[in-house]
Structures are given as C-alpha cells and as structure tokens.
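Ticket reopened. Same input as before:
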Amino acid sequence: MRILVVGGGGREHALCWALSRTATVFCAPGNPGTRQCATNLPESAKDHAGIAAAIRREHVDLTVVGPEAPLAEGLVDHLAAAGLRAFGPTKAAARIEASKAFAKEVMARAGVPTARYNTFSDEAEALRYIEAHEEPMVVKASGLAAGKGAVVCSTRAEACSAASAMFGGRFGAAGKTILVEQFLLGEELSVFALTDGEHISMLPSSQDHKRLGDGDLGPNTGGMGAYAPVSLATEELLRRVASEVIRPTLRELANRGAPYRGVLYAGLMISPDGDLSVVEFNCRFGDPEAQVVLPIIGADLAEDMWSIASGENWSPTAMIAANQTAVATVLAAPGYPDAPEKGAAITLPTELPEHTLLFHAGTEDGDGTLRVSGGRVLCATGLGEDMSAALAASRRLAAAVEFSGKVCRSDIGWREIARARAS
Ligand code: AMP
Ligand code: GLY
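Engineering reply: fixed in the latest deploy. New output:
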C-alpha cells in the first residue's frame, strides 16, 4: 500500500514511522525526520489541489491527514469529491475541534459530561459574567489556536484580561467568540478512538504535559511531553469513556448529518472521585501523544486506516499495547510558546541510544545544517517494559541532542511515578 501523510510535525513523523512498518509512505510537506522513513513531497497541506495532484502522481492508495487545520478546511471533502481515499473527518465533523462552541452544543445534546460554560461574542457581557462568577475559571477562544487558546485563570482579574486579549485579537478570528468555563479539578487523560462512525477501537491511553515548566508550572503549550499507557485509565474507565463519551458523541454527530470517521481524541479530566468530564475534543491524534501511543500499538495501523477511509466493513483489530511503556520528552526552542527563537544549529548523537525514537517537528536543513525552525523542535521518545525504563531512555536521548537554549521538562510522567510509589 502507498500512503501519503499530510503535515510536517512530530505527530506526522510518528505516523510516517508507524505506517512505514507495513506500507510505502510519502509525506507532504514532511520535515528532515520524515525523510528517514518516507519520501517527502513539496506540496503544502493548504494546497488541496496540489495534494490531490501529488496523490495521482505518486499512485497513492490512502491519504492520512495529520493536523487539524487542513481537516477543518475540508481537505478530506476535497479529496473525496475527487474520488480519492482519505483518513480523517470531513469539514463538518471536524467542527468538533474547530469550534469549541459547537463541541459544547453536541455534548449537551448527547448528554456527555463536560464543564459548565457560557459563550460570548461581546466583551462587556463576558466581563460582567466573569465578575459574577467563582474563581478559578478558564477562558477559551472558540476557534483553532494551535492548542494555546485556553487560559486557566486563578482570579477574576486574570480572566478579564484573558478575555479582553482574545477580543482584542490575540488569536485572530479564533477569539471572536470566547467561552468562559468552570475550572475542573483532577487529572487529565488523552484517549484516542479510531472509528468509522459506528465501530470504535480504543487506543492505549496517554497523558500530555501542557505546561511549559517542571511541576506543571508556566504557560500552556502545545504539549511538552507525554507517556502511555496511563494506569489511571483502567479497562473499566476506558469502557466508560467509550459508552459515556465516544459513542454518544458519534451518534449525535451522525444525527446532525456530520458522521465522523477518523480518530476522535477525547481530552478528559478525571476528578479525584473518578468522575469523568470532557475538556475538549480534537479531530486528530494528539501531539506529542502520538509519539508515545503509535510506538506501542500492536495492530496494523495502515490496514485499519485503509478500511475506515474506504467505508468498508471494518472490524477493529485489537489495539493491544505490546507490553510496553513509552515516554516522550519534547525539546523546545528558547522563547517557546510566545516567541520561539529560530535558526540555532542542532547536533544529534551519531547513534540513537537503545530503545529510543527521535521524532522531528520544528527542524529544517535547507542550508545543509539541521536547524531549529519552530517552537517544538524534536521529541525524544523512550520505550521500555515499564515507566522507569522508558523514562530513562527518553532522558538519555533528550540529553544527547544539543542546540543553543534547548528547553525541556525533566519531570515527564511524574503523576504515574507518584502513583506507583503510593501503591
Ligand atoms: P483546551 O484548549 O480546551 O484543550 O484546553 C487546554 C488545556 O487547558 C487543557 O488541556 C487543560 O490543561 C486546561 N483546561 C482547559 N479547560 C479546563 C477546565 N475546564 N478546567 C481545568 N483545566 C482546563
Ligand atoms: N497535545 C495536545 C494536543 O495535541 O492537542
């Protein structure tokens, strides 16, 4: 099978790596890392006609769209209209991520537990609401903001300034409508379900680390590291996620004429009492969660994606984790997330340490030297039989990569380690 992965970040490198185990892979536009397991093509994810032409030129059987932006812009619809098979939701179904206001409506209708909220498109009204509500609270841009559109505010004053910044254009059109949401206490969990709209296959659970700094301090980022699987996500909990979150959401989307196919990502908060709430839905794999989940799944991802995209009778293969744990440490540019500094030369180890995978994200090598070209630069994944082995491998690799001002967390997986100590 010949597969095209659209995108060029760490998630897409992980997808190329996973799919290249059983298929011939292309990546558009890719990055210097995807070139190790795929053929990079020059087309941009924004150029829908160019992507369709590349698919025909390279005799691609299946296209897998990685990031949310091309999904929200209707790339899958464009390809389907041209008779080309693509894995990922249509534009209408991708609204589950592209509009937080829409996602909340779907959840309310489907009876899916989520935080109480209100939406606003008028600044004065939002500020009045904030003044009348309990601290802490979360202020969110409704549209796509590269994972950075949610601000957790411990005071009303912070919430007011976050809301004003959004109305003032901090996230462009994405912040024209905002949500003010009840703060949920608990532990976050990322769960990915592959689905053809009817059947689902739950992948191993993972946990992201959104804050920039150790101890979960500092600003929210796209994600500074992840591990999988998460022991908090027992089989019983995952069954509840399937029946209380994923299935009702799929049914409601289908009822609205937007049946969902692809991977549905539920970002959950698990309260100290074990109650679950949806923090957000995404219409794609998480980044950096993909860099820990894809390396530990036992199934043939290419076959599953092909069947889902074909609308054929898909019977999910068991996505059993291959008795492995994965930990990923993201290496970010200095100044990330607000103003990442680009251009520094990167030195990679001549040989990767054992049981590690290095996924590229914000790198480029157009002038013959590998350089920093984005906020999240590389992702150092370590694999092991247990958390401590995987963590040690990830740290070894993270330390072996050098560039000026490298920013990374040293406490990825701290909740899991604390849980293991406590038990
Ligand atoms: P979102 O953009 O909705 O995914 O939010 C990004 C991050 O902000 C989440 O992963 C959480 O860490 C945090 N967050 C969002 N909403 C809430 C909430 N209602 N309560 C607590 N934390 C939240
Ligand atoms: N790591 C969070 C996300 O991909 O949205």
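The two ends are 46 Å apart (CA to CA). The first helix runs from residue 10 to 19. Please confirm and we'll close it.
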